[in-house]
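Follow-up to my post from last week.
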Amino acid sequence: MAEAFLTSADAPTEVPLKRRLKRAERARQFKALALVLPCLLFLLFTFLGPIAGMLWRSVDDWEVGRVLPHTVAALADWDGKDVPDEKAFAALADDIQAARASGTAAIASKRLNYALNGFRTILASTARNLKSAPEAGTAKETLGKINPAWRERATWAAIKGASGPMTSFYLLAALDLTRNVDGAIVAAAPDQAIYRDVFARTFAISFGVSVLCLILGFPVAYLLAALPPGRSNLLMIFVLLPFWTSLLVRTCAWIVLLQKEGVVNDCLRWLGIVDEPLRLVYNRFGVVVAMTHVLLPFMILPLYSSMKAISPAYMRAAASLGASPVTAFLRIYLPQTLPGIGAGCLLVFILALGYYITPALVGGAADQMISYFIANYTTETANWGLASALGTLLLLATLLLAVVYGKLVHGQQVTGGMKN
Amino acid sequence: MPKLKIALGFAATFTAGIALATATQARDLTVVSWGGAYQDAQKKVYFEPFKKAAGSPMNDESWDGGIGVLRAKVQGGAATWDVVQVESDELAVGCEEGLFEKIEYSKIGGEAAYLPPAVDPCGIGAIVYDFVLGYDKDKLKEAPTSWADFFDTRKYPGKRSLRQGPKTTLEIALIADGIAPKDVYKVLATDEGIERAFKKLDTIKTDIVWWKAGAQPPQLLASGEVAMTSVYNGRIDAANKSEKKNFGMVWNGALYTIDSWVILKGSPNKDAAYKFLDFVGKAENQAKLSETIAYGTSNKDAAAHLQPAVLKDLPTAPDNIKNAVEINVAFWLENIDRLTERFNKWAAK
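User reply:
Got it. Predicted complex:
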């Protein structure tokens, strides 16, 4: 009875309170959302939007469909076994004349030239020589006379392959693959298959630089963490000064140091170690040295912060329990720096993957990383499809690595690196 | 809830406001060129005098080329550039893609006032310049005379420098291999020709340092890193004049090309742009540019205003152009992607 009384008395007040609380909570959430909204919008416009654009461009294939619409329609039910019939030729003649009038022929010929080298000339010569629409039934003959390439199956297969609206052409090309006349995926011609090697090179250089940064950075970070604050602050400035200096300046400084008549070679010759100057720059050695130097602070800083958090008492405790300094270091100190090592390596590795200016300046033609090719296709030859496809693959590979790394580091953190 | 709406409204108004402000802002004529010593010269003889003569303000900016940049400017709307100096391949592609206004020659003195190769429906020639063989006279005892000497590492020991990529590199290799400059593109159009060029490059492959920016070759020569290099003729001239270097160049087998002025499609300052192009197209003004930096110009009468001492160092001087070849834009448009891949495959071997 008492219970029923309580419920009936409280019921009218309790529900609105809950609702009021909820409402207040929701209002707070909205306010918080409104506060982060500028940041979210910024990310959307400058980060997610462009990445989505890049992903889309790597499969987008609008050019031929827009410029040669009738040809694409006529080829829709072509079986690809023989040269298509009169209907397709007539449609092509119409399209070429329309494209010539509107000045859009170049858009299609650029895309078709990727699929079949020389297509630019085929289309241009046809557009120039096709004075008027061929009479009904003679389109095949007329076009074949203007350019014998129209009698080839490969020419038509190229148009069909590029008819859109989406294509795997660029992504395949970025993996050194292509489609043959029959539409089957085959390896690209050996003198055009470069991207697998370039990706391997990019990952190898980045990996090497990360390892070097770790080897060089670990003792420095240890020293910084172990010294009394006054001296460690002074040393920290030596780490941070180059960090604050422009990347371009640091890269050019390495050219001055490493070149044939540079400081390093002069010293080596003066000491009598070498007679002929060594080739230290414009090759892989120069790239690795300069990149390691540029990226070293990104390794030292996370290492330093993880080492700073390790209490010296642990090492003293290990020693008091009879561990030798080496054992204490390996079993007590090192495992506690693992998060720092992981963060530093990941940071350096991912930054190194996208390096462009340093390899461009201190590397040779065989040391260019994937970003060089992306930049080249973006600004020089305006092959945005291939540039996007290379970017997409780089993005995927990086994400994959980040996930693998996350799993690895997470697993180690659970046990703290120590045996349970 | 209302607060969120207000916040959202704020954000929307703010974004739209920025977009509107950038789109509708009236701006002065903006001319874009290649920076460095070259743009300094242009500033002195073109931009500043034009401002005074026309009595209207103008801005100048610099860029590093690339059709992608122009495409983004024009297709993105609200382009911030009006007149741009472009290389010949950008001129051809941009014209095909409709990125440039068609030039009305009646507004800039008529087609007849200019040298025929400088006249294009989409752009008017600004300068003629060459890729030449450059060397340091203080370091080489005997002056090289041709690209064949460039490949002769026994007679001229030391590294060489070429521009990274297939363009100009393959032409130079073929000329060095004995092909007459005028036949270079005929040979290069065949697979055997490309094979031959790479085979010739193989002979000095380990001695090549690749340069990417125009400022690098003079620096490589000055530091003694390389004995010879391919280089823009104006850079050699500038290094000799301003840094008191003793560099020499070989015009034999030089590769020349023309940079042109274009007006970007949809420019709101078209009248001012034509006034500017008319001003920089005048023979007496172009002559002043050649005096400042050793590039040839497009007006037929410009040479008449110049001293013989200046004339003999220009790419357009009869002796210099005699055995030179114009870089073939059509060939490179069709083949650049394929040959870039081929070149990188070769370089990585």
